[in-house]
Amino acid sequence: MSESQNVIEIKDLDVRYGWGRHSVQVLHGVSLNVAAGCTVGVVGESGSGKSTLAKTLVGTLKPTRGTVMIDGVNVSSVRGADRLKLRRKVLQMIPQDPFSSLNPRHTIGQALAEALDPRHADVKKHRSVIAEWLERVKMPAEAMSRYPHEFSGGQRQRVAIARGLIPEPTVVIADEITSALDVSVQAEILSLIAGLRQELNLTMVFISHNLAVVRQVSDEVAVMYQGKVVEHSPTAELFNNPQHPYTQSLLRAVPGTPGFSIDPGITEHISHENRAIA
Fold first, then answer.
1. What's the CA gap between 6 and 35, in Å, rounded?
2. pTM (2 decimals)?
3. What residues does the ABC transporter domain cover (predicted)?
């Protein structure tokens, strides 16, 4: 695809933690483009730099070198109101742990109203839109009057997805959003994401350590190893003909290996979910 179609353009990205001689470089010259309407899965073992990349994309970490352009905006250069606008309307993150990211004193309706309109987080004013989004993530409209602790982990993740998508952002970053869920609930969430991707033509970076999950949801896959992108190609091509030795080793990994897995159970559950939806 041409560069004009790229919503995300990452070029020569270095990121360090700490200062001076005690600093540690975590990302090394990362370059990655994501086209409009494309989901790129970012996969790698713990410590490979996936979460650091996500934090740099949303602007919570500043690169020591290189640029992150999202929808034509240099993420590290925006300040004040422009930064808030970027975080709300252009870029949203769906977190790994929705329970810690949801205010326990706010109802689900308040959480969604605030995401939709931070200045006027009025549930009554936005009731119809909130109800519509709850329905989209397969939650009942009456959930808006309840609190996060009243729901299961899978239900809270559905709320987190609705909260991330309700502002209709240009880009969505999903960071290990199924890792804390059991296999059957993971399958439900992945089927939900698949439907929303198609319905909304989402541009998404989907971060995971699980190859089976990434294979189900991604158009392309970027493999990270020791802070570098060592391979990036269409999903089918990467799984059928991996080029980098590290990618090859991941695909040979024994299911359930700590820190990385190819879980066939997820694929089976997802297939069942898709048949049920059809």
1. 4
2. 0.85
3. 10-251
